[in-house]
Amino acid sequence: MAKKAVASLQKGAGRNHTKCIKMVKSENGYQFAEEMVLNDQVKDFFAKK
């Protein structure tokens, strides 16, 4: 099932997006923040806190 999802993102409108994963510090340690962003907004995603 994952192969279908990944393959569908490689065609058409899915090529305009990137899945970004960032480590965020919390009270209990670190958590991961995941988000699908446009290719133009990747730097903004990692710049914000």
Write the layout of secondary structure elements.
Blueprint: H1 2-9, E1 17-26, E2 29-38, H2 42-47
Antiparallel strand pairs: 1-2
Task: Describe the model.
With 49 residues, the protein is α+β, with helices and mostly antiparallel strands. The chain has a domain at 16-49. It is 29% helix and 41% strand. It is built from two helices and two strands. It has helices at 2-9, 42-47, and strands at residues 17-26, 29-38. It has a two-stranded antiparallel sheet. β1 (17-26) and β2 (29-38) form a beta hairpin. The model has no long low-confidence stretch (mean pLDDT 80).
Q: What is the SS-derived class?
A: alpha+beta
Residue share in helix: 25-40%
H/E element order: HEEH
For the record, give the distance between the C-alpha atoms at the N and C termini, rounded to a whole number: 33 Å
Largest sheet: 2 strands, antiparallel
Strand order of the largest sheet: 1-2
Beta-strand percentage? 35-45%
Strand tally is: 2
